[in-house]
Design a protein that fits this description.
Blueprint (H helix, E strand, L loop, with lengths): L21 E2 L4 E2 L4 H26 L6 H10 L5 H11 L5 H17 L10 H13 L4 H15 L3
Antiparallel strand pairs: 1-2
Helix pairs in contact: 3-4, 4-6
Length: 158
C-alpha cells in the first residue's frame, strides 16, 4: 500500500497463488476456478475494509498513516463481523452513552446468536435467522426493531 511516493507498506493477505494465476494488468486473480474466485473475493473484502476505514478517518478529519493501518490490520485480525462491530464501538467517540450501551447490547445478542460471523455470510437469511433468535428471547417488538436498526448501521457501514 502506497501512502505517498516515499512511504509504502506491504500487507500480508494470507492468500497464496502462483504467478501465472495473477492478472498484472487488472491487479487481481485470474478467475480460473472456484477456489481462485473465493480467494479473489477475500482479497476484495480486505481491500474494501481498508478503504472503508480510510473513508471513516477522512470523515473524522484524520489521515490514514502507516501506524493507523497497522493498528487497523491488527485489531481486525480475526476478520469477523462481530469483531468489526466491537472495534468500532471501542473507538467510537461521537455516540452518547445510552446509544453506545444499546449497541453493546445488540452485539452481545449477536455474539450469543453466532460469535464468528464472516463478512461474506451476511445476507437476508442471516438477518432473518437473527430475527427469529431475538423472538425466542422474549424481547418486545420495539426492542427487536432497535436491534435491527443498530445491526443495519454496521451492515451498511460507509
Amino acid at each position: 500500500m502506497y501512502f505517498d511516493r516515499k512511504t509504502r507498506r506491504f500487507l500480508s493477505t494470507g492468500e497464496k497463488i502462483h504467478q501465472d494465476q495473477w492478472d498484472e494488468k487488472n491487479s487481481r486473480i485470474k478467475p480460473l476456478d472456484k477456489l481462485l474466485i473465493d480467494k479473489q473475493s477475500r482479497l476484495t473484502d480486505m481491500l474494501n475494509g481498508i478503504e472503508t476505514y480510510e473513508l471513516e478517518l477522512i470523515r473524522r478529519d484524520q489521515v490514514l498513516t502507516p501506524a493507523r493501518l497497522e493498528e487497523f490490520m491488527n485489531r481486525s485480525g480475526d476478520g469477523t463481523f462481530n469483531a468489526f462491530i466491537e472495534n468500532e464501538l471501542k473507538s467510537e467517540k461521537v455516540l452518547k452513552y445510552g446509544t453506545t450501551k444499546g449497541h453493546w447490547v445488540m452485539l452481545r445478542k449477536l455474539n450469543e446468536f453466532s460469535p464468528g460471523i464472516k463478512f461474506h455470510e451476511i445476507n437476508y437469511d442471516l438477518v432473518h435467522r437473527f430475527d427469529q433468535f431475538l423472538h425466542t428471547k422474549d424481547l418486545g417488538t420495539n426492542t427487536i426493531a432497535d436491534h435491527h436498526k443498530v445491526l443495519r448501521r454496521y451492515i451498511s457501514w460507509p
